[in-house]
Amino acid sequence: METDIAIRARDLSKKFGALRAVDNLNLTVNHRQVYGFLGPNGSGKSTSIRMLCGLLTPSAGEIEVLGLRIPEQAEELRRHIGYMTQQFSLFTDLTLRENLDFLAAVQNLPSAQARQRVEELLQEYGFAGRAEQMAATLSGGQKQRLALAGSVIHKPELLFLDEPTSAVDPESRRDFWEKLFELADAGTTILVSSHYMDEAERCHRLAILDHGRLVADGSPAALTGALEGRTLEVRAERPRHAKQVLLQVPGVISAAQIGNSLRVLCEETDDCAARIERAFGERQVRAEVRPTVPSLEDVFVAATSQAPEEPVGEGS
User: Fold this and answer.
1) 209-224 burial string, b = 16+ CB within 10 Å, else e?
2) Which keywords does this chain's UniProt record carry (predicted)?
């Protein structure tokens, strides 16, 4: 149904001089989804997010967010969205309460409602009893949690998060994502960019961008399932030597060493293992080759090794 769609972008492009940062992006995000953007630095993730939330004017294409045309209705959209970047964007010389009070004022919340909402967020985000603490004294994970609290102070329908956990420790990242799912369960749609594979696995749906193009789109399960039969594990006495041989075998896209074994991604499912075993036999490499379950890292490598005409996945 049309009413299920929170974000729709069609043929979205952005050029900076001769650089095409985003190249004909087609995207559909449903309400209540946690939708992930995955891609290397420079892939167009941040540029896409800034266009979707009305901060950057596209060079071409159409955007509709929460039923509003962007950028024409960007001012109206800002009342319904939250936006958070990887850099702590609040005031370090203010207390936690003062930061939240300021953001409530920016969102024009009535005084009584603002006081109640600030108290709710201090409790919900683990800052009870610390309201008068200076923001500068918080750890990296705590700062990001405060920034998330600030971005949802007006209870937005849609939340844009641009690599929000890139500078925090694993435990803080895990806690942060618990908060995201609480928000999604309460009805908030979330679009979050990341370069962490474990975070990508948490998303309901995932887009992979490379050089400004959408090269994969689907649920994590569907994307990994599409690679069934194309991933192998190689256990060898001399992994580094085995890797050199593997990379010369036709059809092998990548071979990554993980401990004493090698993870191999093939172009196709047919007889890749047999070709590898023949190559090992010819080079007298003692190794065991067996199938293994595809991972999102394999999906990422497959999608970015060569950009297809149409994105890999379920479609939109």
Assistant:
1) bbbbbbbbbbebebbb
2) ATP-binding, Nucleotide-binding
Split into its structural domains, the chain has a count of 2
Angstrom distance (rounded) from CA 178 to CA 21: 32
Q: Using one digit for the tens of pLDDT, what is the confidence trace for 184-196? A: 999 999 999 988 8
Residue 311 belongs to some domain of the structure: no
Stretch (H or E) spanning 113 = helix 111-124
Q: What is the CATH number of the domain that holds 269?
A: 3.30.70.100
Q: In this structure, is residue 304 part of a structural domain?
A: no
Same-domain status, 180 and 233: no
> What b/e readout covers 124-157, taking b as 16+ CB neighbours within 10 angstroms?
ebebeeebeeebeebeebbbbbbbbbbbbbbebb
What's the rounded Cα separation, in Å, for the pair 206 and 218?
Answer: 5
Evaluate if pTM is beyond 0.85: yes
146 lies in some domain: yes
Longest dimension (CA), the chain: 78
Asked whether residue 109 falls in the same domain as residue 194, the answer is yes
pLDDT tens profile 9-40: 999 999 999 999 999 999 999 999 999 999 88
C-alpha dihedral sign at 96, 100, 106, 112: negative
Structure token digits, residue 280: 């090992």
Q: How far is CA 89 from the centre of its chain?
A: 20
